[in-house]
Structure prediction request, 366 residues.
Amino acid sequence: MKIAVASDHAGFAMKEDIRNYLFELGHDVEDCGAFSEEKSVDYPDWGIKAAEKVADGRADRGILVCGTGVGMSITANKVKGVYAALCADEFTARLSREHNAANVLVLGGRTTGSELARSIVKTWLGSEPESGRHMLRRQKIADYESRVKNDGAETSGSGRVVIIEHPLIQHKLGIVRDKNTSVKDFRDLVQEIAGLMAYEISRNLPLGEIDVETPLCPTKAFSISGKKLAVVPVLRAGLGMVEGILRLIPNAKVGHIGLYRDPETLLPVDYYCKLPNDIEERDIFVVDPMLATGGSASAAISHIKRLGGRRISLVSLIAAPEGVKKVSSEHPEVDIFLASLDSHLNEHGYIVPGLGDAGDRLFGTK
Prediction:
């Protein structure tokens, strides 16, 4: 594991001890400073450096130290994507990972002894995030973070990662995760979830006023104004989401992109593409139930862009952080809509806890 460490002058001695301890444990350590306890320095200058390395994936975790830990904690939590926890004992260290998925540990160099600090570090590194109610709570934080700028104003543009937490979606998602759910029920539920997600995603479509005549009298009503929509499933699993969306938006056109993931390299292989002729005029929903490595989704988006598509969103039931990171880094303007952001990918590239292979479960294959 690669760990970024940093401190100010007050935390320098503890940072040095922790750095040596991490080497003993076999970790790769990047020291972001400070480099002396003799000269007074400002903790934000060093804390931000380490926190940014965690946020952009250059480090797996971070450990920061200042006098009390408070300053470094406040600093790190200003960096988007960082969840820093100030811990004073093994109990809070363990729960900061299990409940809160903290990716940065903060210690007080003047409030915590060396032996206790090492014990806290070992416990924190050895703990993993839990799912269930704790995952839902973390998702609420991530959803807020994705919608709000640093100045507190809500964003309405691109590049969001939005987790849709509607109770019906979460209820149905729990059933499709169950390995005992039948193929028919799995297929029906995926369509239902896709429709519910489309309902939430489309709530901001612009409306235009129209004239209609009821059985009683003429009146004013509303119609979706000027928006052309396209649904593009990534074959084959994406097909399972199309019908649910078309039930809600029947006038949307449907394109298809054929990609599969090479089992050895985990890289996408392109074998088919057919899009509406006016794809450049449409708002496009790329749909794929599972956003795992992100390779197929990113390749599909790239393909659509080459053929003229501009306004693209990605809709997935479940994602791994690795997949979100890849799509966001390669297509920063693309909004990503999810029902769940899960823990991680396993060594075979499957999302954990996930739901298995969505294509196999949709079509009854192995």
